[in-house]
Amino acid sequence: MGVIEVEGLRKDYRRSHGRVVSALAGLDLTVPAGGVFGFLGPNGSGKTTTIRCLLGLARPSAGSCSLLGAEVPGQLAGVIQRVGVLVETPGINPGLSGRKTLEVLASVASVSPSRVGAVLGRVGLAERAGDAVRGYSLGMRQRLGIAVTLLKDPEVLVLDEPANGLDPAGIREVRDLVRSLGAEGRTVFLSSHLLGEVQQVCDRVAIIARGRTVVVGPVGEVLTAGRATALLVRVSDTNAGLDALTSAGITARPESEMIRVEIPPEGAEAVTRALVARGLYPTELRPDRASLEDVFFALTEGQPTESDR
Amino acid sequence: MRLLRSELQRASARRLVRVSALLIGMAVVVGGIVAFVSTSSLSELVFEQRVRTVTVQQRAERAEIERCLAHQRSTPAASAQSGGGPKGCFPSHPIQRARDPRFHASRLRDILQGSGGALALVGWILGASLIGAEFSSRGLTTLLTFEPRRQRAFLAKASASIVIAGAIGLAALLFLALVLLPALIAHGAPSNPGDPSIASLSAVIGRGTGLTMLAAALGFSIATLGRNTAAALGAGFAYIIVFENVLGGFLERWRRWLLLGNAIVFLSGQNSGGSVPGRSVVGAALFLAAVTFTLLAGALIAFRARDVA
After folding, report:
1. Could you tell me which chain A residue has the CA closest to the CA of B307?
2. Which residues of B touch A59 (CB under 8 A)?
3. ipTM entry
4. Which of residues 61-80 of A touch B (CB under 8 A)?
5. In the predicted model, what is the mean pLDDT of chain A?
């Protein structure tokens, strides 16, 4: 059983003239305990709606979801103490200082005030903790939002775009933080647009499009699932190389200044043999690995439109 | 209680609350200075002498007018020739009155009553803003990830808004009474049987505070239903223009079922005060409380059922 279980989750919104728009169209998802789980999808695919349903902020039209075994929203109060949440930009009172913000929330959650200093230090806000939040930059507010999620020392962290508004150094810090939280045995459910970041920190990913799960699994498996693998070869004479390969019955086409060979990496020897037979020696031969971005676009483009009914 | 305490801390840190308290404090101080400067001490003997002098002057003027009118009646041709007519007999300057520059205790009561009405307006705005700002800043989202039981969150927020508005109202009225004391002590008129007692002044302050709290609850409820501050302010404006002006103005029997008339009766402490026939102070208080609780209950039901962004 997963830490997060979502089954057949639907969320419909009524619009004018009785039109119904489905933000979620029967989403299924299971997030296992421990590690970092990436939750990806294009804008409007239903990521934030899923998170809202999971936290009891939005009522599902159909389906069910549970968090740490507790049914949401009925039993959510029983487990919320073990869950840290950041939904998009943190909703924080600008009149309070960073420290006071955390102290107030700590009192709501019955968390020891001594924990406030620890989380401020962990997100790098200790020096500005006494300043009013209205004087914070977007990045500092985002760090404070992350500090809010850590306040309860949670088993599960739900982070929706935690790197929003952060500069490259901040993004890197968040990446390291997320990675360390996962390494501590916590479950981090990370929704993000930064595919490169997700690829670097996540153990498993789910990609959703138009309110449905498209693919879910370990990052490595998802990467290979999206696109056929190929080899990229560089030779001094590209045309001669193409001719040599096609003569040997290998499908190849030019790509930038290289030759793209539609053959799995295991076929590298056959490629080299065909080229050398014509006196062409490869200066570069490497597998064309699909990035998560490639897979993401391959899987999310051209999905059937079901959201508008 | 923990939740209420934290909500009080969050709400009291809002800029609007602090600015309102500051502006009210400044207005009260200015009012105290104006009351002191615009009044002066006068012995009862001197005042009685002034009254006698003015009375003699008034009698002389009246006799002159009567003599002039009688002359015009007896010789209409002369009157027509002079072009005067009856109007020509009346003096161009207003009839003199004996000015009393002293500060009367009854004036203190009137000022406190009027201020109670103004503070109710402030209470309405505060109540609406304290929840409206939480919707727009997404502070509610953060709170609900710490306390997902919406009924508790709503009651804590509503209580905090009402308590803060009430505290500002009470402090303002007490402070107002305090800053008017120098004028009353230094420039006060001798007591007379119609003067308000300490108990009745306390009751005025109590009713002013109560009305401020009810107004805050009403503003809070309507802003919750509309999910923003502007909804409550717009509804209040439309209500006063449409219902109070149109219905109250043209259909007198409706006045006892409208808020403004009942608020005036309640604030005045006089049965059928404010030209609302057949409405007692207790009846007005019960009516205002019933409307407030009905709207609060409606807002709670909506808050529990709706999604939070």
Report:
1. A58
2. 305, 307
3. 0.79
4. 73, 76-77, 80
5. 87
Q: Which residue has the higher pLDDT, B94 or B287?
A: B287
- Predicted TM-score of the model (pTM): 0.81
Complete DSSP assignment for A82-142: GEEEEESS----TTSBHHHHHHHHHHHTT--THHHHHHHHHTT-GGGTTSBGGGS-HHHHH
* Average pLDDT of span A257-269: 87
Q: Is B145's CB within 8 Å of A58's CB?
A: no
Return the number of CB contacts < 8 Å for A and B: 79
Q: DSSP string spanning B12-80?
A: HTSHHHHHHHHHHHHHHHHHHHHHHHT-----HHHHHHHHHHHHHHHHHHHHHHHHHHHHHHH-HHHHH
Cβ A95–B15 below 8 Å, yes or no?
yes
**Which residues are CB-contacts of B1 (< 8 A; sequence separation ≥ 6)?**
none
Q: Check CB contact under 8 Å for B18 and A95.
A: yes
Closest-CA residue of A relative to B7 is: A104
What mean pLDDT comes out for the span B122-143?
92
Over the stretch A95-152, which tens digit does the pLDDT of each residue have? Answer: 889 999 999 999 998 899 889 999 999 888 999 999 999 898 888 888 899 999 999 9
Q: Do A107 and B147 touch (CB under 8 A)?
A: no
| pLDDT average, residue stretch B222-246 | 88
Kindly list the strands in the beta sheet with A230-234, ordered across the sheet, starting from the edge strand earlier in the chain. A252-255, A258-261, A230-234, A284-288
CB contact under 8 A, A95 and B148: no
In percent, the amount of chain A with pLDDT more than 70 equals 94
Compute the distance between CA of residue A232 and CA of residue A117 in angstroms, rounded to an integer. 52
